[in-house]
Amino acid sequence: MTAPSTLSLTMVHLRYQFLETVRIPIAVIGNMLFPALALFFFVVPQEAIARDAVIATTSVASLGLFAIISASMFTHGVGVAEDRAQPFDPYVRALPAGPVPRMVGRVGNGALFGLLGLLPLVVIGWLFTDATVTAPRLLAGLGVAVVAAVPFVLLGMAVGFGMPAKAALAAVQVILFPLAFAGGLFMPPELFPDWMATFSELLPTRAGRDLLVGAVTGAEVYALAWPVLLAWTALFTALAVVAYRRDEGRRFR
């Protein structure tokens, strides 16, 4: 009998985690609803913003990045912590397939729900604002959004492997919303005081936001955006690895 491949095992984990999530509809609805409501209530009623194609597109892109980051943080932070609390988890982690199929399946599940979170934003932006984007820029934007989500996937894993479920939920919320506000996902950085605008350029949310806006609108991106995003990715990779190894050492020694 042939052993299942890594790809087939990954698809099994992806399907299982997807079904596990959709069985709690509020988990899906919440991720899709908050960014869409923010766009509908804070952007659509303001004619100066909604009827300016560049500003409207920037608003949709910023909130779209928040939706993806939120899905990444909750899926890999709270989701991993909840899995660790299950009695079945030590058995799954001890299987000879190793951690790769399960982790890749979780990353794919987070990406899937992040993309689902974009759908209501795109529909509202299309119907109620003058936001517009060409097909090449849309594809470039999706690529940038995926790359910008990577450090938050890793940060979520660091939280999930380092904390119990209740603490992980609080930690994700405490980390996510200040980073989103300071990174210009809810308010344009142009409205920040000078000191805050300078400080925000050092944050992964601001770097990801500006890179995504630049991809979909052609706006100029500050020079440190890529280095900042890559530096945070390296830092969060180290944190995730340390948290995973500490959890392995505590539970399987």
Automatic annotation (TrEMBL):
GO molecular function annotation: ABC-type transporter activity
Domain ABC-2 type transporter transmembrane: 12-213
GO cellular component, one term: ATP-binding cassette (ABC) transporter complex
Segments passing through the bilayer: 21-42, 54-74, 110-128, 140-161, 168-187, 221-244
Domain of life the protein comes from: Bacteria
Bilayer topology term: Multi-pass membrane protein
PANTHER family: NODULATION PROTEIN J
Any one GO biological process: response to antibiotic
Protein's cellular compartments: Membrane
Name recorded for this polypeptide: ABC-2 type transport system permease protein
Annotated organism of origin: Flavimobilis marinus
InterPro entries in the record: ABC2_TM, ABC_2_transport, Nod_factor_ABC_transporter
Pfam families named in the record: ABC2_membrane (PF01061)
Keywords per UniProt: Antibiotic resistance, Membrane, Transmembrane, Transmembrane helix
